[in-house]
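Kindly inspect the following:
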Amino acid sequence: MTGVIVFPALLLVSAVLTQLAASGVLGKNSLAGIRTRSTLRSPAAWTAAHRAAAQWAWAGFAASAAAGAGALLLSGVAAVVLAVIVVVVFIATIVVSLAAAIRAARASAILEG
């Protein structure tokens, strides 16, 4: 049941870092952020990518935190189902956020010319 705490916590950290990058506080660096070829292409691509990913990161955190809280409060099959939902939401959030970021970064590159 540790996962019902760890996965939402990881998504919270991810959402905060994504928001910081989207707002321009966290620029391109070697440790944090969505680091793909398209997002690292320019500062505009970096910001656009993180703006697109931030909404998904926050939504994923909210959903996983709600499911995690339910898993901790309930017992039996309901708790197990909610724990599985936490993991699925975690994976889906990473995939969808990354896809949105890459799409936004590529669109930014097209606009830059």
User: Anything to note?
Assistant: The chain has a mean pLDDT of 94.
